[in-house]
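User: I'm putting together notes for a lab meeting next week and I want to include a structural view of one of the chains we've been expressing. I don't have a solved structure, so I'd like a prediction I can at least talk through. The sequence is below, exactly as it appears in our construct file.
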Amino acid sequence: MDFDIKKYAHLARIKLSKKEEEVFQKDIEEILEHVAELEKVNVKNVLPMTGGTALKNIFREDKPSLQEDFEPAFPNQEKGHLKVPKVFDND
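Assistant: Thanks for the context. Below is the predicted structure for the 91-residue chain, given as structure tokens.
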């Protein structure tokens, strides 16, 4: 395979040691060899997979929540708004 790990590391602004270059070069070549093997498989009569599961949307119905639903968790209110404790100090 013709893949220069140094070129792509440079484009990605990644600094690699010599050892990393050797390891990654070997790894990427093995991956590309595997992909080349997969490209040889005859998939002419294989339909594309569009899912893999028969599950349907199992989420609850999306409906607005009422402020009254949250009031027990937020006992402090001001001008119709729920108040929460400070998170940051502005010292």
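A couple of points you could mention at the meeting. Residues 5-39 form one domain. The chain is about 35% helix and 5% strand.

User: Perfect, that's what I needed.
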